[in-house]
Structure formats: structure tokens, C-alpha cells
From TrEMBL:
UniProt GO MF annotations: S-adenosylmethionine-dependent methyltransferase activity
Organism listed in the record: Kocuria coralli
Keywords: Methyltransferase, Transferase
Keyword presence, Nucleotide-binding: no
Protein name: Class I SAM-dependent methyltransferase
Length: 251
């Protein structure tokens, strides 16, 4: 992508980062997709459920891609801009959007749902998931895995050895079992990311705010300039995301 450093940084800083749509990155960055097709599998499960809960729905884009919803369909979200975006997408589809902090307890009765789902939840409260699931109900989700995009994160923050263990699927499945759930399926993937200009980096770090907490262009301008020169000299900046698909059942 052509453009000088200041111009590219200004583009990334001016871009709209509301919602959870990454189409602004087209031509600037690419990410390999997981092989299991989460959205399609989610749609299949929603079509046969009787009561569903999507936790931390973000802007509702993934949930809204389903063609059918159960008679009772609920989504939760904590971030006000996402709540408004999700409501706009999901209310016409008959899905109730509940503003809820990402802390327990979930504002629902015991055994209220036969399907609980989530795509890339920031926090996972297994005891609450187990509590709101009916006997025989399913938790079906795609989680971010350990050390995801750490090539980029550590470029700005330096080595993060302790954080690299976070979100490990072995730890998550152990916690799910401790909450009384049975693991039905677990699949893992490591996926290539190519970042073609520094505007994409600014956009991503403004949007995915937990990657480099407190990120501002001013605070990290020197490091952004280092990355710009690196991309100019060597081509796209390569990172890797990690994902795992997890299905758990309440016996």
C-alpha cells in the first residue's frame, strides 16, 4: 500500500473502529481462516435449539449471519458502542440484546438455555456457563488461543513470557470439566497474518485494545516508525493468530 509514514498513520487513526467488522483492512492485511467454519456450524446449532444465549456477542455480526434462531434467543455485550450496533442488527431478527458486564453472574435463571455460544470471548466464566445450561445442553464456541498475534504485541511491548500461557486450551478444558461440563470436541489452529502497512497496525491496535493496552499513536510513534521501515525493507509483517473450537456438554 503506497503512502508515506505520516499519511498512513493518519489514515489508521481516522478510521472508524466501532463494531466488529474488519473490512477496512481489505488490501492492507490478511488473516487465514480456521478450517472448521464456525459461523456455519453455529447456524446449524441455532436452527435446532429451543433457547440460545450468545455471550459477549460484540457487534452481533457473527450471530446475525445465521438464517434461523430459536424461539428464545438472547445475546449479551458489555461495550456500549457494540451494544448499539448489535441491537440494530439483531433486534429485527428477534434476538434480545442484554447489556451485561463481563463479570458473573449472568442475568439469567439456572438451566435457561439449551445452547450457549461465544466467538472470541474476552473472559470465560465456566461455572456461569454450566449454571445457565440445561441438562444435556451445549456450549459451542471459538476461542482465541495462547500467544495469539504475539509477534505484533511483543514488537511494541517487548517479551511477554508469562502472558504466553494464557488461554491455553488445556487450561480451559480443565476449567470446563471442573465446572461439571464434558468436553465433546476440541480443535486447534495456528493461522498466518500478513500486515502490509502501518495504517493497518494503527487501526488494529485502536480496535483490539487489549493487545497493546493504552495504545496511542503519540505514545508509540517511534515504534510505529520502526515497523513502517521494516515493512518497506522486508515486505509484509508476519504474525500468527491461534484459535480453538470447543464444544462442551452439560451431562
Amino acid at each position: 500500500m503506497a503512502g508515506g509514514f505520516d499519511e498512513l498513520v493518519a489514515e489508521g487513526a481516522a478510521a472508524d473502529v466501532s463494531g466488529w467488522d474488519f473490512s477496512w483492512l481489505e488490501g492492507r492485511a490478511t488473516e487465514e481462516r480456521p478450517p472448521w467454519g464456525y459461523s456455519g456450524q453455529l447456524a446449524d446449532r441455532l436452527a435446532t435449539a429451543t433457547a440460545s444465549l450468545d455471550v459477549q456477542t460484540g457487534g452481533g455480526e457473527v450471530l446475525a449471519s445465521a438464517t434461523r434462531f430459536p424461539p428464545t434467543a438472547v445475546a449479551t455485550e458489555s461495550w456500549p458502542p457494540n451494544i448499539a450496533h448489535a441491537a440494530k442488527l439483531l433486534h429485527p431478527r428477534g434476538v434480545v440484546v442484554v447489556a451485561d458486564p463481563d463479570d458473573p453472574p449472568l442475568p439469567f435463571a439456572d438451566g435457561a438455555f439449551d445452547l450457549v455460544t461465544s466467538r472470541h470471548p474476552a473472559t470465560i466464566w465456566w461455572e456461569e456457563i454450566a449454571r445457565v445450561l440445561r441438562t444435556g445442553g451445549t456450549y459451542f464456541a471459538q476461542h482465541v488461543g495462547p500467544a495469539s498475534v504475539f509477534e505484533l504485541i511483543e514488537f511494541f511491548l517487548g517479551p511477554q513470557p508469562e502472558a504466553r500461557r494464557g488461554r491455553h486450551p488445556d487450561d480451559e478444558t480443565a476449567a470446563a470439566r471442573a465446572a461439571g461440563l464434558e468436553i465433546v470436541d476440541l480443535r486447534q489452529a495456528r493461522l498466518r497474518i500478513e500486515i502490509h502497512d502501518v495504517a493497518a497496525v494503527v487501526y488494529l491496535l485502536r480496535k483490539v485494545i487489549w493487545w497493546v493496552p493504552g495504545f496511542t499513536v503519540e505514545k508509540y510513534r517511534d515504534r510505529l516508525h520502526d515497523l513502517h521501515r521494516l515493512i518497506q525493507a522486508e515486505g509484509p509483517f508476519i504474525a500468527h493468530s491461534t484459535r480453538h473450537l470447543i464444544e462442551a456438554r452439560k451431562p
